[in-house]
Structure formats: structure tokens, C-alpha cells
Amino acid sequence: MIGIREVEHVAKLARLSLSDQEKKLYAEQLAKIIDYFDQLKAVDTEGVEPLCHALSVLNVMREDQVVPPPGRELMLRTAPAQENGYFRVPRIGE
Description:
Blueprint: H1 4-13, H2 20-41, H3 72-77, E1 82-83, E2 86-87
Antiparallel strand pairs: 1-2
Helix pairs in contact: 1-2
């Protein structure tokens, strides 16, 4: 059972400060979540294959294709700012 002590412990680990009302609320909510997991444990799963994904997934990898780069002029046309054939970016340091 999740109680206020457990909520306080987790809050301390997460460096959260909670009011007494929040501690009580979270303890109630977490207890409901744990109860729901107990309901799921009661479901008969005998003979059911475990899944790693809910849908059947096919390998969507393709062969690598070598393509030429788009070129300097095209790249510079898409830049928000350029100067002397280079990207212009805001100064970060001194």
C-alpha cells in the first residue's frame, strides 16, 4: 500500500516540496494505480504469446543509396543569414 511516507520519500528523491494536501492526493492516486495493477495480475494469460509491439511490425530498412550533396549555393539559399559564402550565426562568446 502506498502511503504518505512513500510519497514523501519519492518527493525527497525528486527534490520536490509538496503540501500536506498534495501528499495525501498523490498517495490516493498512486494507491489506485497499484490496485489497477493488481487487477491486471488476476487476468489469465496462460497460452498468450508475449508481444514486444501491439501491431505486427515489418523491417522497413532499405538499402543505402549514394546521392550527391545538394550543393553550396542551394544550402546557402536556405540559410537565414549568410556572409561571404558562409552561414552567418549569432556570436556566442566574447
